Amino acid sequence: MIIETDRSGGVKELEELLERVSSRPGVEGLLVLACGENGFTPEDLNPLLWRQNLPLAGGIFPAILRGAEKLERGTIVAGLGAPLRTLVVPGLSDPDIDFTRHLEEALEIEGPSPPGLDAPTVLVLLDGLARRIEPFVEALYGLLGIGRTYLGGGAGTLAMDRSPMIICNQGLLADAALVGFLDVPSSLGVSHGWNPVAGPFRVTSSRGTTVETLDWKPAFQVYRQVLERLGVHSIDPEDFFAASRSYPFGIARVGAERVVRDPYQLHPDGSLTCVGAVRQGSFVHILHGDRHSLVSAAAEARRISQRFQPGPGGTRLFFDCISRVLFLKECYAEELSAVHDPLQPLVGACSIGEIANNGHSYLEFYNMTSVVADLAADLAEVQPIPDRQEHEP
């Protein structure tokens, strides 16, 4: 993978990166990770994206990662030295879309293993605040199945608005998902480090991403009582996320680690909106963590990924929830150091929700979780490069 970085966040600089990376020998696809602070708009970006001849996958995130560095302004362009096929799914919040049928038609599936779609790695980038992420993820996994690595994350910014965030050959899109089939073996580690401090509570009423009642009481009433018992006595309704990012929900899974849900919005009726759906009838705990547990979890995700290392060389992809950054603050450098290997290039994003499986278990949309993937060396990494090379050391 050929990796180049612009730290200014400019459109012209992005154009130069795209030209430079796409012209290098062996590059067959482009991964673009951009910061929300860049202020990219469809009017600025679309003419540039429409001109790209190579398949392109990317998104806008609160922050992006290059090596041991977190950038809050700028853009990373990575050249993929293996075939990349992309598929864009619009209307990720549309209640009338049958995602299974849409994907079947888009992929022209005629059997369990359609030609060209058996890539070992599936990159999924999507609008992190879309209201029907889980039905889309379930449909995707139902059609493509096990035996491959899925990874990715939710695009968006800390403004939590619904602006266009998905970068692809069609332009800068809102409320969409992009699926990239990458013909490179990969390995995956997933861990979060949040531990239960109260519960379980039954979700007695919910609507998609909004939890209305827990144990037949307004969700915020239950949530506030727990936090007050734990010593958190000041919860500002106008800045609910300041407290909630330290106390997420954890959805119970049989025989597996809890799936974290990040409540970020409090409504006047006492309901709580999360990043990702919480199904009625499920059971949730309230979780908490500390610096040690979160950093240790990121290191564990790296360790698991390395245990299934696909081969020497290659690139590490890291999708890490932006809520972990906000929780750890100046200590986030420790989490990034726990994942970064100075001898291996790393690119990634601080995302709004994470997509992952491990090649065998069920595909999930996570929150507040570290997802580490090691990609095998691809063709672009071994091709001679006529001009200066900007690999990480």
Automatic annotation (TrEMBL):
Residues 28-218 form the FIST domain. Transmembrane segments: none annotated. Residues 219-358 form the FIST C-domain domain. It comes from the Bacteria. This is FIST N domain-containing protein. It comes from Alkalispirochaeta americana.
